[in-house]
């Protein structure tokens, strides 16, 4: 039989194990879940772009003290108006929420460059902006697209799932 490690070695291993937890948990909140953009585009250097930058900055700044917020920016004309919101997972600290929102906004800028609307979901937070109000409006956009050929048994399972969901909507 091999001897068991001494007590100090156990404590060192335990300490090292817990010291890496913040790194793992922070990277988990950054995991990309989905993103989508509207097809409508705005002109670079326009009033809309200025308003969008202001909106996204407000979302990031607000996330340092609140896990949810929404903003409306009224433009000089109706087509320059913007609506945006963010929400962090309830178990995130304010610093982690702010980090998640900042990363989501950065990714959203790359994903939806020059588009009038976009949404991005990371594991820890959600950000959305659009040129029309969406608060209180049901979102029917498809956020999951399956690639590849269908397999016969999947169609049957999907039919059963749809029947159950249909019964819930009654």
UniProtKB/TrEMBL annotation:
State its location(s).
Answer: Cell junction, Plasmodesma; Cell membrane
Q: Which residues form the signal peptide?
A: 1-28
Instruction: State what protein this is by name.
Output: Cysteine-rich repeat secretory protein 60
- Its membrane topology: Single-pass type I membrane protein
Instruction: Indicate whether Cell membrane appears among the record's keywords.
Output: yes
Query: Which Pfam families does the UniProt record give?
Result: Stress-antifung (PF01657)
Among Gene3D superfamilies, the record links this protein to:
Gnk2 domain, C-X8-C-X2-C motif
**CDD domains cross-referenced by the UniProt entry:** Gnk2-like
GO terms for cellular component? plasma membrane; plasmodesma
Entry similarity comment:
Belongs to the cysteine-rich repeat secretory protein family. Plasmodesmata-located proteins (PDLD) subfamily.
Residue ranges of domain Gnk2-homologous in the record: 30-134
**Keywords, in A-Z order:** Cell junction, Cell membrane, Disulfide bond, Host-virus interaction, Membrane, Repeat, Signal, Transmembrane, Transmembrane helix, Transport
PROSITE patterns named among the record's database cross-references: GNK2
Asked if the record carries the keyword Nucleotidyltransferase, the reply is no
User: Which organism's genome codes for this protein?
Assistant: Cucumis melo var. makuwa (Oriental melon)
């Amino acid at each position: 039989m091999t001897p068991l490690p001494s007590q100090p070695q156990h404590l060192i291993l335990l300490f090292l194990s817990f010291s890496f937890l913040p790194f793992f948990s922070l990277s988990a909140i950054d995991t990309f879940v989905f993103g989508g953009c509207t097809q409508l585009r705005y002109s670079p250097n326009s009033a809309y772009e200025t308003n969008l930058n202001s909106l996204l900055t407000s979302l990031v700044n607000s996330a340092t003290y609140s896990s949810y917020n929404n903003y409306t920016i009224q433009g000089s004309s109706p087509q320059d108006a913007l609506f945006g919101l963010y929400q962090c997972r309830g178990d995130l600290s304010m610093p982690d929420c702010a980090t998640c929102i900042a990363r989501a906004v950065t990714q959203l800028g790359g994903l939806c460059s020059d588009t009038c609307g976009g949404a991005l979901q990371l594991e820890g937070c959600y950000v959305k902006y659009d040129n029309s109000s969406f608060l209180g409006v049901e979102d029917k956009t498809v956020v999951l697209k399956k690639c590849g050929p269908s397999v016969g048994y999947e169609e049957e399972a999907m039919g059963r799932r749809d029947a159950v969901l249909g019964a819930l909507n009654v």
